[in-house]
Amino acid sequence: MSAIQAARNYVAWAFRRATVQAIEVQRNAYYRVRETPQGRALLKTAEFLRAPSSNRTRRRTAHDYVARAQPPVMDPAKGYAFTSVEKFEKFDTVLAAARDLFQRKKAAIDAEREGFDSWDEERRQKYLKRKDNFLRNLLDDADLREKPTLVDFALSDSVLGMATRYLGTVPYLCRVDLVYSLPRAAADNISSQLFHVDPEGLTQVKFFIHVFDVGEAEGPFTFIPADESTRILAEIRKLRRRQGKPNIGRYQDEEIAAVGGDGSIVRLKAPAGGGVAIDTSRCLHMGSRVQPGASRLCLYLQYCTTLEPTNVFDVDRLKPDPVRHLAVKHSTEPNANRVGPSAQMA
């Protein structure tokens, strides 16, 4: 390698490292601001002023829609509500569509992981450091066009209505996906296996709905209600300051226990169709601690009050319905990879 090429490689490496560090600093600053009442008020005002006309339209439409649809209620203080098949219409068709897509995707994943125990150590360690070795997002835009049942479910009154009532605005439907959790084959927990809050905006709603039964072995989605999360986060910040540790956005089980958080933990074990609608920007959560021989598959829906990375939905199909069109009209090719201020820090 020439000296010039070596210098170029070093500059590229230094730039990438500086970018990662800058994003980390920005993310930690955002979390600190968001976790105080004054900071939340400031960010809420800034969020509204980015698009005041659009935000007013979304709020007015939400008020009329919720009054008409009478959707289920999420607890505003605790930031979640359990869901069940009884709250959904024609959920058997949703399960059938999800399971059909899953079976097609699973064969490729099984082939990729085949013979893991016989891999050399270097290959094993590289694989174990990848988040997608234990948590896979399975669907793309083509899958959703093939199976519009999933998008229609995400836009149904019992689902979109619940998110709208909680958020006080017609949100952006950002993601419709199947999330597949697998055993990680490592002793330590990383990434989303650790407690955290999500960075998108001040508030959002995500649905995690079981496609198959989930018990302890399947590594159930695990969370702490919003009111308790607020207390726990404040206590952990104090604890870390006393210990001289940085306030990074992932929290060890021992830290949760040290501030008396164990008693507030909720583990989502339920049959197929059971699930939760939850504000993951306010509620500490983690999951995918799957035991050997088990797996977990969830239908995953995300509703945001800020523009975040999004699927590209079939917007034209939904134009006749003012509420549902408002939820997806941001979803066009130019916006598909758009990253809002908070999502850049994810």
Short description:
With 346 residues, this protein is of the alpha+beta class. It is built from eleven helices and nine strands.
Word description of this protein:
About 40% of the residues lie in helices and about 10% in strands. With about 350 residues, the chain is α+β, with helices and mostly antiparallel strands. The longest helix is centred in the first third of the chain and has 32 residues. The radius of gyration is 21 Å and the shape is globular. The relative contact order is 0.17.
- Helix percent band: 40-55%
Give the CATH topology: Jelly Rolls
The count of β-strands is 9
Q: How does the overall form come out from the CA principal axes? A: globular
State the domain count. Answer: 1
Number of separate helices? 11
What is the N-to-C succession of helices and strands? HHHEHHEHHHEEEHHEEEEH
Radius of gyration: 21 Å
> Which structural class fits the helix and strand makeup?
alpha+beta
What would you give as the CATH superfamily? q2cbj1_9rhob like domain
The biggest beta sheet is recorded as: 6 strands, antiparallel
Percentage beta strand: 5-15%
Low-confidence stretches: 338-346
Mean pLDDT: 87
Q: What CATH architecture label applies?
A: Sandwich
- Strand order across the biggest sheet? 1-7-4-9-3-2
CATH class call: Mainly Beta
What is the CA–CA distance across the termini?
A: 36 Å
SSE order and pairing:
Elements: H1 3-34, H2 37-50, H3 52-69, E1 80-83, H4 91-113, H5 121-128, E2 135-137, H6 141-146, H7 148-154, H8 160-167, E3 172-181, E4 204-210, E5 222-223, H9 226-243, H10 253-258, E6 266-267, E7 275-278, E8 285-286, E9 296-304, H11 322-328
Antiparallel strand pairs: 1-7, 2-3, 3-9, 4-7, 4-9, 5-6, 5-8
Helix pairs in contact: 3-8
